[in-house]
Amino acid sequence: MDTRSKLVQSFMRMCDVGVLSYISGRGKPSSALMEYASKGYMLLFCTSRDSRKYSNIKNRNVAFEIHKGERTLRYEGLSIELKQGKELEEAKSLLWKKDPLLKQWEKKEGLAYFAIRPSWICYMDFDTKPDTKITRSFGRVKRKT
C-alpha cells in the first residue's frame, strides 16, 4: 500500500463520526450523523430497520463526509446491506469494538448492518503547505445480488 493510501485509511480509522447523505425514494435529500468503522476504503455502519434512512439507502448510491480539524474526506459509493456471512460478522466485530454500546442496541432493535463500497474519494488537509489533496476513483461499484 502506498503512502497516500495509508494516510487516507489512517484518517478514516481515526475518526468516529461522519455524515451520511442520500436521496429518498421521493427524490428528497436527507443526511444523518452516523458512527462508523472502516476496513480498507470500505465504510461500515448500522441503523435500525425502523429508521427512515433504512429503506432509502439499501443498494443505493450515497455520499459520506468525515471531518476533523482542517482535514476532510468526501466519499461516494454504493450502500449494501450485509445480511449474513463473514462480511457481516466482521462488520459487527469492527463496529462493536469501536463502540461497545452498539451491541446492546443490536439486541433491542435488530440493527441492519451496511457497507459502503467506494466509487470515489477526495481527502483534503488544509493544515499542510501546500494543501494536501488526494483523490481516487474506484470505478463503478456493482451491486451484489
CATH class label: Mainly Beta
Helix run count:
4
User: What's the rounded overall pLDDT mean?
Assistant: 91
Summarize the helix and strand pattern as letters. Answer: HEEEEHEEHHEE
CATH superfamily: Electron Transport, Fmn-binding Protein, Chain A
Report the end-to-end length measured between terminal Cα atoms: 30 Å
Strand content bin: 35-45%
Which outline best applies? globular
Total count of domains? 1
What's the assembly state of these chains? Answer: single chain
Query: Architecture, according to CATH?
Result: Roll
Q: Tell me about the biggest sheet?
A: 8 strands, antiparallel
CATH T-level topology: Pnp Oxidase, Chain A
The helicity comes to 25-40%
Radius of gyration: 15 Å
Question: What's the short story on this structure?
Answer:
This protein is an alpha+beta fold. Helix content is 28%, strand content 44%. The chain has one domain (3-137): Electron Transport, Fmn-binding Protein, Chain A (Pnp Oxidase, Chain A, Roll), CATH 2.30.110.10.
What is the secondary structure topology, with strand pairs?
Layout: H1 3-14, E1 17-23, E2 29-35, E3 37-39, E4 42-47, H2 52-57, E5 60-68, E6 71-82, H3 86-98, H4 101-109, E7 112-125, E8 132-137
Antiparallel strand pairs: 1-2, 1-5, 3-4, 4-7, 5-6, 6-7, 7-8
